[in-house]
Amino acid sequence: MKLAEAKQQFVASWGAFGTHWGINRTMAQIHALLLVSPNPLGAEDIMEQLNISRGNANMNIRELIDWALVERVIIPGERKEFFTAEKDIWKVVRQIVRERKKRELDPMLKLLGHLSEVEGDKRDKEVKTFTDAINNIKRVGEQADRTLETLIKADENWFLGSLMKIFKTS
Amino acid sequence: MKLAEAKQQFVASWGAFGTHWGINRTMAQIHALLLVSPNPLGAEDIMEQLNISRGNANMNIRELIDWALVERVIIPGERKEFFTAEKDIWKVVRQIVRERKKRELDPMLKLLGHLSEVEGDKRDKEVKTFTDAINNIKRVGEQADRTLETLIKADENWFLGSLMKIFKTS
DNA sequence: ACAAACTTTCAAATTATTCTGAAAATTCAA
DNA sequence: TTGAATTTTCAGAATAATTTGAAAGTTTGT
Fold it and tell me: In whole angstroms, how large is the CA radius of gyration of chain A?
């Protein structure tokens, strides 16, 4: 397979993959494109390679910067901005986990805390089922919270080395 | 907070939560509703409580059954079908992980295997950057694959007990 | 201060997804 | 076998998300 074709396919697949995870297709495609580009790209390059408008490119690049997956690069002597993606995939994963935890898991746990304080007789089956469900979800959520927190703080070697061994031997 | 209100809020939030994870709002709401319902519900109940059409209810219930998160229940003496959700949240998590791994991670790893065989001179910076990126993603993906596989097979006590200790002390 | 180069914004258009509701199909008791 | 109860299907409607492109805004060299 030729490089151009492989790149094409990777960008397309990464885009499709993203849509299953609540990430907009173009954003994922820009990220993919930057991941496999040795040099920083300008907005023009991105627009051209993905066939998207200036506004679309701008908006999604900013979103990627907001997620800290992409950063602006100033190239001396050039007027315009360039963009580059973090190439260390473990950093990328940790960054995504960190952001999604903050944006989604934390608020959810807060809500569950509220909901577990529903008033009512616990001998009422309706009430019991509700509080049981909420408390179970809360427990699992809190466990996920701790696990993800550890993952976020873990460095690559620790994760690839120790965790793997731990999982394998248990 | 009253039960009815709390239920309401839980169903709504679970629905919103789902949309961030590529799950359609109604499907997540039906799941939430069944999670907090002590008894199996009929299609009518679901339609009524969520204010949705028969077609919508039917489609999303079937999707939930397809994911093995909900199952049909036959109540003796009743003509129509009832539905109930798995209440053990760890089972639910494992089931979701199992399905998404099968539907998304496995195909992605297969594709990455293909793409890593791109032809070209490795001293070409373009080629090197591409294969490096693909191989890095592949490695991380394979690690995730192993970890998730272990999680799928793990029983609740093992996960809540050992893993937590392991993470805490490392 | 000027103006060319570049970036950002956002209303409107496009595209994708979800939902409805009525008709068709199926099931089942009698 | 019949027909009432129930489920399924799916074309079109409604809604939501994404994208465009041109105008407004900003930056920078002279």
Answer: 21
